[in-house]
Amino acid sequence: DAKTTQPPSMDCAEGRAANLPCNHSTISGNEYVYWYRQIHSQGPQYIIHGLKNNETNEMASLIITEDRKSSTLILPHATLRDTAVYYCIVRVAGGGGSNYKLTFGKGTLLTVNP
Amino acid sequence: DAGVTQSPTHLIKTRGQQVTLRCSPISGHKSVSWYQQVLGQGPQFIFQYYEKEERGRGNFPDRFSARQFPNYSSELNVNALLLGDSALYLCAGGGTSRYNEQFFGPGTRLTVL
Asked: Looking at residue B79, what DSSP letter applies?
C-alpha cells in the first residue's frame, strides 16, 4: 500500500469548511484513497473513498488531483463533533475477501473551535 | 441494525496472564480484522479472517492468535501478556462491498499491570 503524508494537526472554526490535505505521491493506478476518522477513544469510522473522480456523500467531499498524487477531504460545515483524528489511507479495492488490511499512519488531529 | 460489537469494554490483567477478546461483525459481513492501537499511534493490523480462514497477519508475535466462528464472530487471544500489550484492541468487519469499507467496533481497552 502506498504511503501517505498528513499534517499532524489542524484547527477549524465551527461552521466553516475544514480542508484536510493528504499527499500520496507513490499511489498506483489501481489504488483508491480512503478516509477514516476516529473520535477520541472510539473505533475509526469510514468517511469516503475515491479513485480519480471527486466524490461526495452525506459526510464529506473528496477532491483528488488529476495526477492523483494528493487529495483533500472537505467537511463543508464543521461542527464540534467533527473534532477527531482523520486518517488518509491508500490501498487497492476488491480482492474477493482477501484484502481488508488498513495501514494507518498517525493522521491529522482536527480540532473544531467554537 | 446493530453495529460491530466487542466485549468486554475494559479489561485489566497482570503480566503473564492470558486474555480473550470477542467481536461480532454486522449481520451479513463475513470478514473480521483485528487491530491494536497504543496511545498516540494509529491502529496496527494484527489479523484478518474471511469465511473462517486467516487471510492476513501483521507483524505480531505468536502470542497473538485468533479464530473466526461459523456465525462470523471472532476471538482474539493473547498469551503471556506483557506491559506493552496494553492498548485499545479494535475489531473491524466488512466484505459486502468491492471497495472493502471497514466498520469498526468501539474497541476493548486492555490494561496490563
From this structure: -
